[in-house]
Amino acid sequence: MKIAIVILNWNGQKLLEQFLPSVINFSSKEAKIYIADNASTDSSVTYVKENFPTVKVIENTINGGYAKGYNDALQSIDADIYCLLNSDVEVTENWLEPIKTVFRNEENTAIIQPKLLDFKDKTKFEYAGAAGGFIDLYGYPYCRGRLFNQLEKDNGQFNDEATIFWASGACLFIRSKVFHQLGGLDEDYFAHQEEIDLCWRAQNRGFKIKYVGASTVYHVGGATLEETNPHKTYLNFRNSLLNIVKNVPKRWFLFVLFSRLILDGIAGLKFLLELKPVHTLAIVKAHFSVYKNFFKFLKKRRALHKKQDYNLHTSIVWQYFALGRKKFDELK
Q1: CA distance 300 to 246
Q2: pTM of this prediction?
């Protein structure tokens, strides 16, 4: 089983200086390590070539974001398993072995995520994926160990293996044949939530997505775009809507879509009341972008395999804000 760990980089020399050594120390005997550079303008490529000669550098011609960056780089990498790893992730000793074991034993498991803890507070789960992701009735993503901005402490409650709905793009393992069968990541997303779309499409073809709690990594999060950046708000709201247009089952499609128009409007008002009008504007721009590209994504929807139902009995918005349920195990 050949594993390729592929770290996407854009002007990230400081992150590579800090986190690449842990990847090399704990992975180089079991995997080949690649840096996929998205046309950086700093000296990060030179830094890697001079200091880590065993790491292969793939230089993309443009910064096409997370999706295109990986799509381009993975075309030239020969491996059975791709690990898409953020440059701000610290890995741990023996982190690969539990992942390999599941892939060996479960042929139908196509995508795996390890336990994702917060590098800044290693007692807590990390926002980007925690202990594996799910989708609620209205297309909102949430995680075991993270509901909205509420992070749980890691008390061993998710040291298990579990079937999940989506794996975090901060550290995502995928069988190479499945990645290419699915046509890779959707480049219209640019960044954020494209991994949810990828996992959704994989499940529509009958593959499983798994979380493996015996493997642990630590993620900084927000190293490329801070949580307070309105462009991040734009991408998250836009891409969440694109996930709905592409993937929500037909019988729920119109209900979910119109419900999200209302809920996103409420979110915009909330930002206004919090004196964050730039984020309200970001939501407006996100919706207009979806309207502009609506028929393009409907066309993609029609080309996809049969849609499957998802967690239709859960509204994370209602349970979190109205019922005050702040932990995954409290959800009904």
Answers
A1: 7
A2: 0.94
How does pLDDT run across 44-57, given as a tens digit for each residue?
999 999 999 999 99
Q: What is the pLDDT of residue 228?
A: 73
pLDDT for the residue 226: 56
Tokens 């994989």 sit on residue: 202
Residue 275 burial class via C-beta count within 10 angstroms: exposed 0-12, middle 13-18, buried 19 and up = exposed
Name residue, tokens 């927000």: 222
Q: Report the distance separating Cα 240 and Cα 282, nearest Å.
A: 13
Residue 45 sits at the vertex; the CA angle it makes with 90 and 234, to the nearest 5 degrees, is 65
